[in-house]
């Protein structure tokens, strides 16, 4: 580090693992990112998304100024308009005619003031958050069982446990650093066991001793069978149950009929595997159940949660070192949002909206004119109310509902019909911001200042590392300014996030005396200096508790937050998911390793677009065969809600009858990849969380007449193709294309795609006779400006190799772009290890050269020795090679499209 550079410790803005990040900022403003070795979530490690954060600091595509009706405006004009329109709606139609839809990606301080304005001043609870789509079932399950929304355990418990059961969690891709901690623990104690409950095999399966490929939606049956087994094998903890719980007999009665044979039938899991799972769970005192969206995002998500909690309560395995249920949170501040009461059915600081005592505590503390007493609209209902014009003014902050809410086309229609929509975002164009009457430029990661809470209740600081660009302002600031302009001057007079945090900490302890779980009142008088240098800490942190700053677990000795202090067993009968009509598939949706949600931030980092570059659908080989869907061809998925076109990834990691597609593609980067257009707005009746993993769809080949692959320096505008997907590269853009009918003139088509004219670039064309393929190369002064490969079949090309040659400044490399096969350079295949740029083919060569462990591959190629995000995939390549070697040798296959996952 040079003398003039400075180190700033902050927190990663992506997943709920909440890793500490160390940003080294040089005098010239350059930023180098590394893991914060002092942070107890990650001890210095980062996954590839965290490690490439510096690439997202670009100002390309940032929203830098307020806009009114898509014209640049000043903050005072924009805020006056927002305050005016909200005030008018409230005066004319009452407080329930306005709503906020906010996000687990806001900082706690931003979230707190948004909630305060809506519930304490406007007097409505019409504020809901994208956490409704994410954590609502867990919140509801926790509250039913524990009387409060508490994650009882801490990360260390993953390492201390003897059995980790992962349910509906692709931890390897979605919480990579936690996964890495688990991987290390298992390497140190090989006797540790991991069970993965997921309908499909994922990267997470690579660490598992037992994969239970469960029929979608049938987890409740699995855990009912487990409860019965635990009881029959004498593994329930009678004294814990007697002293600290309520309702065990009823829960057991409903489990009674679930013998292994019945569970096997309901879940599609073989009896032997079930038996093995039940025995492992029974034998191991130290068991942690990690669960995530395969549990929450379901029509019976809350019951799934409680079925899991029931087993931990029955065995007393909760809040103990190495034992407990563990809901891992998705967004960086999913937990903070729950703490400030960001959901429409909560008050601040884990207080209850329906409890008059809590209403009174909050209103008096805020000295607010009013307080919401009735729950507001939950996300899906909120957008239905937008659609039927009950909501007259809507403010969306830090979320992209036009893509991420179910029935997303109806959400777009609702937004289009809403009289007044405000969107606060950090990028200029999203599928949601298109509908904004007022667009407010927020400060992004690296500029924002405040706190977030991770999955283990640890509160950490996000700190600014650079000057905020343009007119961007923090979300708390715009919310407070609007509040003041609406006439609420007293409650929103903060000097900065520090003031807000103090007030919030104070409220958490106010009239609490141990009656409420969430308490950080130790910080109610924190100074600006101490706030600036605040180290990560776990709640609770009651006033004066500074002497015992160990990590605290909950419930090992009871102490639940129910009126009698006992946990509740919940009766969770199993209702099989609705039957699919013949010909339909269950559409499962989720995440990929290197992209974050709608890609507004990860999409600008070229490194993160090297792993998977287009939207795809996983389908089982037998299903694909039956439907004539060829590997790497395109398929159309449709139902009554909408349709999408995706690249077919034919793989036996998928179950028959199920499909999987990623959630990340939007109208900004694909022609028709918005997956939530297919997901119906069905929700869990208790939590209101959408059933995002269980839509029914039809699938058929999309009969493309031609396929294309293109590289360009300029961002293409108005691509004329039935199918296209766009991704960033270091030099510009790469694209996959296809069309139902051929353009009249491919040469003109290529020029338009590249944005070049006959005067600005020479165009070379090579025709590949016999295969009906062409290559067009636009170049000038020995530099490639555009490459377009057109073929009647899915394009066969060494894409990583072409990207490398395209970026080159050596005129000799121009030739390799036109050659059908790499000339001078081995094709490394699709990039698996982003840190060291190692491709799948190089790894396969190393495996053939007898490197048979991830470590040996690392020594041979360096793959997997950087951030480690790719280690599960390297393991999969090793396993696949081993299983091929056992079977008859497969013919060498040149995959027409680089494999997607
Ligand atoms: N790379 C990356 N990481 C992320 C995010 C991201 O966008 N990208 N987003 C973050 C956020 S907000 C969240 S909420 C988390 C989500 O983290 P996860 O929940 O781990 O991710 P998902 O891919 O949504 O779904 C997990 C798994 O549930 C499985 N599943 C589907 N249906 C069922 C079922 O009926 N039963 C069971 N047992 N499993 C089922 C799916 O096959 C899938 O593999 O990830 C966080 N981390
Ligand atoms: N089918 C299906 N649908 C799903 C899911 C699924 O698994 N399947 N998962 C659901 C889940 S768990 C989640 S969490 C959601 C995520 O869905 P969204 O929340 O809609 O996704 P993001 O892309 O994270 O949207 C965040 C937006 O906020 C902006 N932003 C980033 N930082 C800031 C900031 O500091 N201030 C402001 N004002 N804006 C900011 C970003 O540019 C982006 O436009 O998707 C849900 N939808
Ligand atoms: S695991 Fe990766 S994405 Fe999640 S917080 Fe850590 S570095 Fe960020
Ligand atoms: Mo999420």
UniProtKB/TrEMBL annotation:
Entry-linked InterPro entries: Asp_de-COase-like_dom_sf, BFD-like_2Fe2S-bd_dom, BFD-like_2Fe2S-bd_dom_sf, CT_Nitrate-R-NapA-like, MoPterin_dinucl-bd_dom, Mopterin_OxRdtase, Mopterin_OxRdtase_4Fe-4S_dom, Prok_molybdopt-oxidoreductase
Keywords for this protein: 4Fe-4S, Iron, Iron-sulfur, Metal-binding, Molybdenum, Nitrate assimilation, Oxidoreductase, Plasmid
Superkingdom field: Bacteria
Region of interest: Disordered: 881-901
Cofactor(s) required for function per UniProt: Mo-bis(molybdopterin guanine dinucleotide); [4Fe-4S] cluster
Signal sequence annotation: none
All residue ranges annotated as the 4Fe-4S Mo/W bis-MGD-type domain in the record: 5-61
CDD domains attached to this UniProt entry: MopB_CT_Nitrate-R-NapA-like, MopB_Nitrate-R-NapA-like
Pfam families per the UniProt record, alphabetical: Fer2_BFD (PF04324), Molybdop_Fe4S4 (PF04879), Molybdopterin (PF00384), Molydop_binding (PF01568)
Family, per entry: Belongs to the prokaryotic molybdopterin-containing oxidoreductase family. NasA/NapA/NarB subfamily.
Name of the protein in question: Nitrate reductase
Organism expressing this protein natively: Methylocystis iwaonis
């Amino acid at each position: 580090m040079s003398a003039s550079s400075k180190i700033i410790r902050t927190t990663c803005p992506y997943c709920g693992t909440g890793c500490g990040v160390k940003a080294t900022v040089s005098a010239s403003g350059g930023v180098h990112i590394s893991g914060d070795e002092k942070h107890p979530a990650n001890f210095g490690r980062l996954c590839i998304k965290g490690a490439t954060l510096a690439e997202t600091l670009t100002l390309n595509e940032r929203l830098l100024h307020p806009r009114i009706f898509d014209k640049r405006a000043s903050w005072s004009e924009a805020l006056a308009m927002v305050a005016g329109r909200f005030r008018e709606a409230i005066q004319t139609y009452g407080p329930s005619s306005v709503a906020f839809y906010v996000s687990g990606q806001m900082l706690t301080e931003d979230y707190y003031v948004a909630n305060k304005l809506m519930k304490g001043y406007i007097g409505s609870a019409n504020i809901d958050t994208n956490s409704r789509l994410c954590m609502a079932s867990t919140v509801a399950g926790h509250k039913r069982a524990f009387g409060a929304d508490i994650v009882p355990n801490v990360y260390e418990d993953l390492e201390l446990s003897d059995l980790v059961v992962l349910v509906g969690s692709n931890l390897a891709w979605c919480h990579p650093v936690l996964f890495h901690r688990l991987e290390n623990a298992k390497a140190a104690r090989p006797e540790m066991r991991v069970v993965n409950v997921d309908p499909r095999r994922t990267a997470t399966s690579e660490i598992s001793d037992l994969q239970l490929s469960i029929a979608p939606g049938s987890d409740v049956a699995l855990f009912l069978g487990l409860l019965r087994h635990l009881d029959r094998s004498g593994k329930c903890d009678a004294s814990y149950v007697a002293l600290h719980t309520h309702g065990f007999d009823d829960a057991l009665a409903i489990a009674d009929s679930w013998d292994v044979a019945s569970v096997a039938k309901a879940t599609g899991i073989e009896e032997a595997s079930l038996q093995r799972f039940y025995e492992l769970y029974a034998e191991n005192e130290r068991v942690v159940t990690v669960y995530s969206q395969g549990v929450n995002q379901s029509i019976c998500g809350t019951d799934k949660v409680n079925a899991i909690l029931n087993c931990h309560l029955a065995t007393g395995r909760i809040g103990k070192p190495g034992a407990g249920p563990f809901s891992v949170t998705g967004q960086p501040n999913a937990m903070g949002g729950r703490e400030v009461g960001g959901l429409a059915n909560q008050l601040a600081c884990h207080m209850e909206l329906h409890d008059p005592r809590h209403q009174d505590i909050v209103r008096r503390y805020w000295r607010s004119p009013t307080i919401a007493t009735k729950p507001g609209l939950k996300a899906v209902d909120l957008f239905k109310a937008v659609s039927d014009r009950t909501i007259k003014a809507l403010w969306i902050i830090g979320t992209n509902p036009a893509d991420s809410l179910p029935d997303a086309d109806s959400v777009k229609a609702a937004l289009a019909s809403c009289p007044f929509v405000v969107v606060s975002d950090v990028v200029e164009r999203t599928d949601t911001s298109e509908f904004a009457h007022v667009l407010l430029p927020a400060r992004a990661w690296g500029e924002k200042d405040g706190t977030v809470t991770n999955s283990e209740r640890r509160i950490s600081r996000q700190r600014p590392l650079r000057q905020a660009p343009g007119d961007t302002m923090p979300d708390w600031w715009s919310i407070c300014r609007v509040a003041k302009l609406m006439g609420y001057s007293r409650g929103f007079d903060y000097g900065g996030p520090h003031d807000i945090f103090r007030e919030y900490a104070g409220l958490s302890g106010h009239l609490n005396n141990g009656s409420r779980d969430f308490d950080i009142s130790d910080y109610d008088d924190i100074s600006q200096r101490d706030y600036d240098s605040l180290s990560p800490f776990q709640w609770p942190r009651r006033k004066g508790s500074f002497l015992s700053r160990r990590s605290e677990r909950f419930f090992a000795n009871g102490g639940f937050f129910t009126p009698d202090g006992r946990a509740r067993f919940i009766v969770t009968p199993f209702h099989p998911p609705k039957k699919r009509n013949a010909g339909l598939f269950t559409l499962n949706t989720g995440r990929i390793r290197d992209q974050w949600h709608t890609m507004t931030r990860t999409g600008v980092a070229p490194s993160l677009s090297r792993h998977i570059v287009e939207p795809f659908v996983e389908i089982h080989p037998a299903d694909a065969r039956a439907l004539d869907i060829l590997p790497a061809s395109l398929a159309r998925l449709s139902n009554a809600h909408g349709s999408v076109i995706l690249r077919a990834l034919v793989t036996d990691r998928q179950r028959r009858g199920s499909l999987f597609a990623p959630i990340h593609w939007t109208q900004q980067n694909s022609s028709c990849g918005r997956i939530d257009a297919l997901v119906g707005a069905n929700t869990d009746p208790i939590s209101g969380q959408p059933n995002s993993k269980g839509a029914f769809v039809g699938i058929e080949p999309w009969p493309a007449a031609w396929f294309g692959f293109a590289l360009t320096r300029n961002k293409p505008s108005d691509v004329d193709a039935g199918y296209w997907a766009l991704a960033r590269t270091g030099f510009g853009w790469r694209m996959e294309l296809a069309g139902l009918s051929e353009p009249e003139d491919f040469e003109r088509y290529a020029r338009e795609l590249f944005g070049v004219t006959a005067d600005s670039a020479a165009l070379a064309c090579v025709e590949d006779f016999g295969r009906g393929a062409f290559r067009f190369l636009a170049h000038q002064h020995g530099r490639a400006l555009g490459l377009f490969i057109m073929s009647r079949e899915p394009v066969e090309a060494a894409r990583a190799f072409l990207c490398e040659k395209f970026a080159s400044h050596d005129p000799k490399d121009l030739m390799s772009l036109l050659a059908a096969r790499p000339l001078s350079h081995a094709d490394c295949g699709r990039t698996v290890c982003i840190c060291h740029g190692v491709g799948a083919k190089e790894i396969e060569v190393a495996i053939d050269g007898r490197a048979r462990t991830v470590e040996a591959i690392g020594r041979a190629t360096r793959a997997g020795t950087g951030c480690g995000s790719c280690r599960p995939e390297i393991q999969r390549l090793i396993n696949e090679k081993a299983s091929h070697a056992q079977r008859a040798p497969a013919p060498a296959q040149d995959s027409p499209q680089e494999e997607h996952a």
